[in-house]
Amino acid sequence: VRAFELSVEFPTGTILVGGHSASPVGASMAHARDHERRPVIPATALRGALRENLEALLRGAGLAACDGGTGIDPEQSDLEESRPCTLLDGGRCVACRLFGSRAEGLEKGARVFSSLILGDATLVGEDVRWSDRQHVSVSRSRRSAEANRLFMRQTPQLHGRRMVTRGYTVEPEFDRYLEAAVRATTHLGSGRSIGLARVDIKLEWLKEITTDSQRQPQLWEDMEVGIRVTLESPTMLGGPLLGSNYRATRNEIPGSVLRGALGFAVARILPKADSDEAFQALFDERAGAHFGFLYPVGEEQDPGPWPLTARACKSHPHTHGVLDTLFDRIAAASIADVSQVEAAHATSLRACAPKASDNDGIRCGAPLRGVPGTRGSTSAPKKRTITRVSIDRKSSSARQGALFSYELLEPGAVFEGTIRNVPTQARALIESALQLPVHVGRGASSGWGRVKIEIIERRDRSTLEQRGTEFDQMLRAHFEDCDLTTEDLGHLVPITFLAPLLPDEGDEDGRATLARALGDVSDWLVTARRFDRDGGWDQQRGRSVSELAVSGGAVYVARLGRDWNDPRTLATLRQLERDGFGRRRHQGFGQAIFFDPFILQRKQVLMNRSEIPQRLRPLRRALVLAAERVITAAFAGGERTQPPAKSQFSRLVNICGEASCAEEIVNYLRYQAGREIKAGGGEPRGESWRVEFVNAVVSGIEGILDGVVDPNMSDAEKDASRVEAWRLYATYLTRAFTYQHAIAKRTGDNHRQGRRS
Amino acid sequence: MGRKGRHSNKHTPSGSTASAPLPSQPQLRFDPENSRVRVARALKSAGPNPHLVGFEAVGIQEFIAANGRPLAMKGASRLVKLFDASNLDAVGTVFAGGGRGMQVVPSEKLGEVIERLCSRYAETTFGGQLAIAHVPLDIQEQAQSLRWLRMRLDGAKDQAHPPMVPLPASVDEICSDCRIRARATQYPGPEGPVPACWRCAAVVKAGRESDGEHWIFGDIATDGAIAVVCADGNNLGALFGDLGNLEDHALCSDLVSAIFDRAHQAACPRGKPFVDPVVGGDDVRVFLPPNELLAYVTTLVRMVHELSEQVHDMKLSRAISRGLSRLGVGVGAVIAPFHYPANRLVAMAHDIEDAAKSACLEHGYRSALDFVWLRSGEELSEGLGTFARSGRRGSAIPLGTSEADDYLARARAIDAVPTSQRAMMASAQADLGEDEFMNLFCYQVARSRTWQDWFEACGVNWCDRDEVAVTLPDKRLLEIAKLTGGQP
Asked: Is B33 exposed, middle or buried (0-12, 13-18, 19+ CB in 10 A)?
């Protein structure tokens, strides 16, 4: 594996690659932007341009090269249907080996589909300004402007700027072809005829591959380890093709994707992966590790799908909280005659009733319905839909009917899950795999799906006995409220699936699979499950895998012929929580929890991270004004009130992101101020926190903090709200500082210039 | 003048028509006697131990939009209607429509009826799921039995028989229409035989056999975009929850269907392409050209308002009269590139419909419209939470009020301002500081007769810079302007 850096400069001062980002209102097309709205050159555009030039070079040298990975030699064939490339001695052509193409599976001896791994090129240095370029269509018949054909294109101003991407090649024999392609590429994107596309590209080979992953502390717990994955580039996770021209992404990382990504990463560095004992032990389908599904991270809940019995407000699904209705379903299933209906109906949860403070004292009353998103968040991770048009290389224009869109998850999304049953001898292998560049999902060769993987401490979860006892007690209380008999309640065992379930062969909906594993099930009081096609692509074997699975979040309540808490049952349940149910457990399917604590949630969970910003919205102005006031006063004051350097403000924003209470932040600031005085022998150094400035910062927000909490909040909710207010305040302080600092600098420059003249 | 003050909507273009008049005074065609007779027949046939059976198709919207082609959606709607029609013919039926229904069944036939309903729906829809729940019916305590049934129905969708989905063994065997099921047959297409699964072939066949024009999305799209509308009656869940007997249930269901069917028929664009996979009850789904959206929605809402007000004179139970005489509609719409998958667009429009209904609940609107204009690069499936947080979506617009008419009239009037002028204004407003923007904009207004006309139509003196500043069109108004043009 050999790393390189590719830099792009713009002799004509701009570039236009459309379709990647939303066009702002009023613009017909805009150049690609990343999730922070800075210009990027999508890896797909870079690869397309490089490939087109390499193909031309190869053909010029008399070598076979297919047309854009279609498997078709444009000089020899009139075929229209694309197919796997076989132009080079029955194998793929050089362009296909370097850039990738359609393939049924890995060729013999190959480790990757594409030797080149390349991400989006991003801007070096500060942000740029954007220009609106207006164009008008000209009627060829009248030789004058056409009516209603004014176009506006938004492009970045890139004079003297550079955009850079890093990548690596896996098969060194193709490196020289990459060098040739880079030298031959002089244009990128659209608008060549109006001077937008001219580029200078340079390739520099690097000494080593760098990743953001760092060696992890030893956090192995038994045979299970917590995993956190952070997306570092746009990512598409094995989504289905909807219709013929739209590909969706999944919102979670399936266990098979994690397993495949780590497997490929390790296989690339092991000289003989096929005979490596630890490798085989880790990835063995029967005895190897279970790579769990990874779900978006939440603040309060373990990551995972919502139970199907969870409900949220129909009107405000994202803000009024989530509760669980399993007890209502158990009660409804236990009603024996019509006389019991009224009491059970009266206690059932049917309408949203958020706490008064969240709704200005008005009971919401909207109906409840299924919850969107996952336990981490009631929204899906942030995505963008990219529309591409396939270019016909013969005519250099858009192919007819070739408009194609796909969804990508934006970088920054965080997912968590577990790897279970890890063989001891394979721990080191996992740890070393995490130091490598790892890509998940589709388009790794375009730089998509680059992730940082960390081993994390597992969240605390109460013991099986504790969960069972709490469930038992609360269900009994509920049944008493419903005037229903509480006999046999001690035999009930609720099972919640944290991942999809593939039942054993011949079992339609999972109950037979569960019954076999649990043993002695007399009946199923509640069955709540939906079904979904779980498709994927087995890269190793080159075939699709498509099965009908019971969706994650399914809930079953089994009535056993024995108590849930007898020792034999508890041992079985513990074992099943570790092993899971059904088939393909090594890919995370069938992971389940008994007595899920969430099903006890009969009141809406009102506060989570996503709600707090909404609560603070009315106070944002006060926070901005306070921050501006503090910074303006600091710059106007003497030496003792001067603020620290900008890096210190960035640090403060980070501290606010990590703090669990406002006092922690104040404590940090005071410590910094005191530390500098001590270190400097009584006077602070130039760019550090000064006591007077810290006092002004702290007193600036004090009054506002009182307004962000109300007496009905729990202590945890109050702390979370205050910390979020501090985080906003710190951001506004940083911005205000940057502005005042620039003014002060300009004023200083003017004074100096004045003195010189 | 702060920029915040600019988005006041207090002015109305004088002399402009708020919305076009309806063709004629609509009359609700509904005979309550039909519903009463049906329920009496059902109770009579149920024997001494009657059971109440409720059923509802699982994922009916997904089924209808699964194929994604207008012809197939029409065909799928037709199959659902065939299922409804056969249920209406059954002796014990209380009501049936939109894949839902309720029947009174003798206890000895309970198993047989349930089995027959499930298998008939699965056969009709090639593997679809039907959620069914049943409880003993106490004739004297019908309200409690209905309540019990509703409690059981709450979880019935999660207990339905698994769907029958024949999956392909390899990508080469995937149905070329739905891209999920295994191809098993082929049907004739314009460019030759199309390899498809049984279900897609059947819905296309049913679509071809259905009445009306057979449009494709390419016909419907204007400048590459189509509009998808989802509409639904407000507060009907609560209304049905309050009904105390089977007769009221049947009357209310039939009335709602009659009102929405009539309103939808009146609102559909005349002589323009559209696809309306309506599935019954108060659910409306329509794909139409974006410039027909506003006309369709305003007519639909006005018709529902006028027709439902006639319920008061029908001498029905107090619960029905009170619940339906002020019936309103929540309307969600998405305008998006037409090559996006239909089922995803419908799902998103449905989410937006919920937002519109939520606005009705919060602000006391009788009806409201909410919409999103999706441009390339914006997410299709991210959910509305992020849209709302990012400030890219304005609030829902109340419909059927004079304020709403004023607002829509202002939007219609701005259509006369050239699009290049509007685009320039939006772009400059985003990029420039307030003073610099007003400096530029006033310069434009001074040079543009159409801008001057628009401000004058809104009753604003365009020479008064402060008045101009508070009357500037907001983003939503500019978007609505692009939706005008259709004729009810």
From this structure: exposed
Determine whether the interchain pair B344/A248 forms a contact, defined as Cβ–Cβ distance below 8 Å: yes
| Angstroms from B93 CA to nearest CA on chain A | 22
Report chain A residues whose CB lies below 8 A from the CB of B424.
26
8 A C-beta contact, residue A408 and residue A384: yes
Question: In chain A, which residue's Cα lies nearest the Cα of B234?
Answer: A366
The answer, yes or no, to whether residue B11 has pLDDT greater than 50, is no
Predicted confidence (pLDDT) per residue in B188-244, tens digit: 988 789 899 999 999 999 998 887 778 888 888 887 789 999 999 998 888 888 888
Interface contact B377-A23, CB threshold 8 A: yes
CA dist A121 and A75 (Å) reads 33
CA proximity to A690, closest of A748, A641, A752, A746: A641
Instruction: For chain A, give the percent of residues with pLDDT over 90.
Output: 26
Do residues A553 and A306 make contact, with C-beta atoms less than 8 angstroms apart?
yes
Cα-based angle A730, A736, A742 (whole degrees, multiple of 5):
135
* Contact flag A544-B168 (C-beta cutoff 8 Å): yes
Shortest distance, CA A405 to any CA of chain B (angstroms): 8
| Residues forming a β-bridge with A253 | A294
Q: Which residue has the tokens 């000089």?
A: A75
**How many Cβ atoms sit within 10 Å of the Cβ of residue B49?**
12
Q: Give me the sheet containing A555-560, strands edge to edge.
A: A521-528, A555-560, A492-497, A592-594
Q: Do A366 and B359 contact (CB within 8 A), yes or no?
A: no
Q: Do A246 and B339 touch (CB under 8 A)?
A: yes
Write b or e for each residue in A727-755: b if 16 or more Cβ atoms lie within 10 A of its Cβ, otherwise e. bbbbbbbbebbeebeeeeeeeeeeeeeee
* Tens-place pLDDT, residues B265-304: 999 988 888 988 866 788 899 999 998 998 899 999 999 9
Query: For residue A636, what are the contacts with CB-CB under 8 A and spacing of at least 6?
Result: none
Q: What is the distance, to the nearest Å, from the Cα of residue B127 to the centroid of all Cα atoms in its chain?
A: 25
Global pTM value: 0.76
Give the number of other Cβ atoms within 10 Å of residue A73's Cβ: 16
Contact call for residues A296 and A415 (beta carbons, < 8 A): yes
A156 token code pair: 């970045």
Give the residue among A20, A358, A9 at the shortest CA–CA distance from A160: A9
**Core vs surface per residue B204-231: b (16+ CB within 10 A) or e:** bbbbeeeeeeebebebbbbeebbbbbbb
| CA–CA min distance A265, chain B (Å) | 26
Interacting residues of A682 by C-beta distance below 8 A, sequence separation 6+: none
Q: How is A29-82 classified by DSSP, letter by letter?
A: EE--B-TTS-BEE-HHHHHHHHHHHHHHHHHHTT----STTSS--TTT----S-
Q: Residue B146: which of B94, B109, B111 has the closest Cα?
A: B94
